[in-house]
Write a structure and sequence with these properties.
CATH topology of the domain at 49-146: Glutaredoxin
Radius of gyration: 29 Å
Order of helices and strands: HEHHEHEEH
CATH class of the domain at 49-146: Alpha Beta
Helix content: 25-40%
Strand content: 15-25%
CATH architecture of the domain at 49-146: 3-Layer(aba) Sandwich
Strand order of the largest sheet: 2-1-3-4
Structural class: alpha+beta
Shape: globular
Number of strands: 4
């Protein structure tokens, strides 16, 4: 119990003074133990997914080649029937705007390229974050999502 609160309670619980009034104090203290919820397991995609990579194309040429040439990563994505889309963070359509289908992903990646998002076929976001440093690390992320 808080010491100042205890002192106040004791003071107020003294017998009535010469004026004839008395004070009654009731203090209830409840203590709860914090039980943080366990971290949710990664969502597992039952169907097909889209792997969207937002990058700065001018800086990605050599790095992209390493990912595209990785046999296990390519085989996993192909075997799942997933689609991969790589887009520049500054991509625009004929009207000079970010294409509508890319806009939400480009907005989420703003200032954090290269960035990868894994989206279920119905549009539910399953994973987002910085593109892993190696194709093997990206493959591990995709396997956690797709089984």
């Amino acid at each position: 119990m808080n010491t100042p609160l205890l002192a106040l309670a004791l003071l107020l619980a003294q017998p009535p003074d010469a004026r004839g009034w008395s004070v009654s104090v009731s203090v209830t203290v409840s203590v709860r133990r914090a039980n943080p919820a366990p971290a949710p397991a990664p969502a597992v995609a039952a169907g097909k997914c889209h792997v969207v990579v937002i990058e700065e194309t001018a800086e990605a040429t050599a790095r992209r080649g390493v990912y595209l040439a990785h046999r296990d990563l390519a085989g996993y994505v192909r075997g799942k029937g997933w689609r991969v889309r790589v887009a520049d963070k500054d991509a625009v359509d004929a009207t000079g705007r970010t294409p509508a289908d890319l806009a939400p992903y480009v907005a989420r990646a703003k200032g954090r390229v290269p960035y990868v998002l894994v989206v279920a076929e119905e549009g539910r976001l399953l994973h987002e974050g910085s593109l892993p440093a190696t194709p093997a690390e990206l493959l591990a992320v995709l396997r956690r999502i797709g089984g």
